[in-house]
Design goal:
Elements: H1 21-33, E1 38-45, E2 48-54, E3 64-65, H2 70-83, H3 114-118, H4 130-133, H5 140-146, H6 161-175, H7 179-188, E4 197-198, E5 212-214, H8 216-227, E6 231-232, E7 235-236, H9 240-246, E8 269-273, E9 277-282, E10 287-293, H10 302-308, H11 321-333, E11 350-356, E12 363-371, E13 374-381, E14 385-392, E15 395-400, E16 416-426, E17 429-435, E18 442-450, E19 453-460, E20 472-476
């Protein structure tokens, strides 16, 4: 592995830090054999990145939507705010939002504390996903106070992004800064994390449970920081006592949750986002494993992780060049580009425009302009015309604002990076693949051109809701 890096982290060979290269290969092979969509990983041990692999077209230099990994960054802000005297764990939430609490609020709402938010023991009966609130343009603070309390705060664990949002809102109230602005000089800059962005909700608050886009190495650095009890390059970034409290079970003997850290996969603790964005810390082995993917849930991959980790983390540091070379070859194979080959000859250059039948997506027109080995696809809805340039039998990199909120966990990506390719399945059926390399999402679009019309069927690899969009049909205009 090269000693230079794109993220400022030193590199070393796997065997030189006691990592078994062949056992790591076995883990990767098991994940692949199970059909799990792993987009990339990084393994860090004893101060060095010792293995990393990325599936095409993921670029580790580019930021990625980290989903609920953001929660562990939010937990850091609360720890720092407590250290700086802005907050205490037993502070009651309502005291900071006197004007937002409704007059008919449940009496026990007054008992909800900062610690209850950190440990997901708010009293709520179910999760409020960011995918729900992203579609709401009014105050999310007001939405939080509308949620009924099924339990007394501090009793039942119910994971909810609403709790993380209110922690972020608290940072706004007590510091006068957004969560992102507060963390920038205290966490992001000291850890040499750059190119990160954080969404802003209608209250001017960063969604503390999600909405953070940053390079995958940012998650690795956060995890390594916690493996080192808050110490980074000789500087105490986070209070050591806070890190220890945050990364152990809180809220009872059966708890599997700390202060915005998960107590899995065993025996690690982790920052965990939907579709498997995971940073797992094996503190006793001075190791951190980061995975990003497009999987239904972490339960699909956790058994494989627990079979191979921490077993892969040995103490024999004798260098094994042949084993390291096998690992490097296996890692390089992850980046192989899939081929696109049509089953028939592409049609002659043409432009096909279709007026779409009334539909729930508000799509009015589809346009397909074929020119050599490039397709310019346009979708017109009630707002504007969205465009994707697609390679025929090859891949094209580009930018798009193609709508897809319902398929993409409530996110609407504007000017997003896309890698798009297409092939003809037969003389009337075109299959497009749209890969969003900074996300977990990969869309498949099948268009059938028959009898002067078109059908347009779009699906996605993973989603928190439905994975199939309404099939659109239209008639050819010219």
């Amino acid at each position: 592995m090269p000693l230079t890096s794109y993220d400022g982290l030193p590199r070393a060979s796997a065997s030189s830090v006691g990592v078994d290269p062949d056992r790591l290969i076995a883990f990767l092979d098991e994940v692949k054999a199970a059909g799990l969509d792993l987009h990339g990983f990084m393994l860090h041990r004893h101060g060095h990145v010792v293995a990393e692999g990325w599936t095409w077209p993921v670029d580790p230099n580019e930021p990625r939507v980290l989903h609920s990994m953001a929660k562990s960054f939010t937990g850091c802000a609360i720890g720092l705010a407590i250290e700086e005297g802005f907050l205490k764990l037993d502070d009651r939430l309502v005291t900071y939002f006197p004007d937002e609490v409704p007059a008919d609020a449940a009496p026990r709402l007054a008992d909800m504390t900062v610690e209850h938010l950190l440990t997901m023991r708010t009293g709520h009966v179910s999760n409020t996903s960011g995918s729900v609130w992203r579609g709401i343009s009014t105050s999310w603070i007001a939405e939080f106070f509308k949620i009924p309390l099924a339990y007394a705060p501090g009793t039942e664990y119910v994971y909810t992004s609403a709790a993380s949002y209110m922690l972020s809102a608290l940072i706004n109230r007590v510091t006068g800064q957004t969560l992102h602005d507060y963390l920038k000089p205290r966490l992001f800059i000291p850890l040499d994390i750059h190119n990160e962005t954080w969404d802003i909700g209608p209250d001017g608050v960063n969604p503390g449970g999600n909405g953070l886009t940053a390079p995958v190495s940012a998650a690795l650095k956060l995890a390594v920081l916690h493996a080192q009890d808050g110490l980074w390059n000789g500087q105490q970034i986070l209070p050591a006592a806070w890190v220890r409290a945050a990364t152990q079970p809180q809220g009872g003997p059966d708890s599997r949750y700390g202060y915005h850290w998960m107590m899995k996969p065993r025996p690690a603790f982790s920052a965990l986002g939907v579709f498997v964005q995971m940073a797992a810390v094996y503190r006793e082995h001075n190791a951190t494993l980061v995975l990003v993917g497009g999987m239904k849930n972490s339960a699909e991959i956790v058994p494989s992780i627990e079979r191979h980790f921490p077993a892969v983390l040995g103490e024999d540091r004798s260098v094994k060049p042949e084993a390291d070379a096998r690992l490097e070859q296996r890692l390089a194979s992850m980046a192989e580009r899939p081929s696109l080959i049509s089953n028939c000859t592409a049609p002659e250059d043409s432009k096909r425009v279709f007026a779409m039948a009334e539909n729930g997506l508000g799509v009015r027109q589809l346009s397909f302009e074929f020119a050599g080995d490039v397709l310019t696809f346009e979708l017109t809805d009630s707002q504007t015309t969205h465009r994707v340039q697609v390679g025929i039998d090859h891949w094209l990199n580009g930018l798009t604002s193609m709508p897809g909120r319902a398929l993409h966990h409530g996110y609407e990506f504007n000017n997003a990076q896309i890698v798009a390719g297409a092939r003809w399945l037969d003389e009337t059926t075109l299959e497009m693949t749209w890969i969003y390399p900074q996300t977990a999402f990969r869309d498949r679009v099948v268009c059938e051109f028959k009898e002067g019309g078109v059908s347009f069927a779009r699906t996605v690899n993973v989603n928190s809701a439905g994975r199939e969009q309404e099939v659109l049909v239209g008639k050819k205009q010219h």
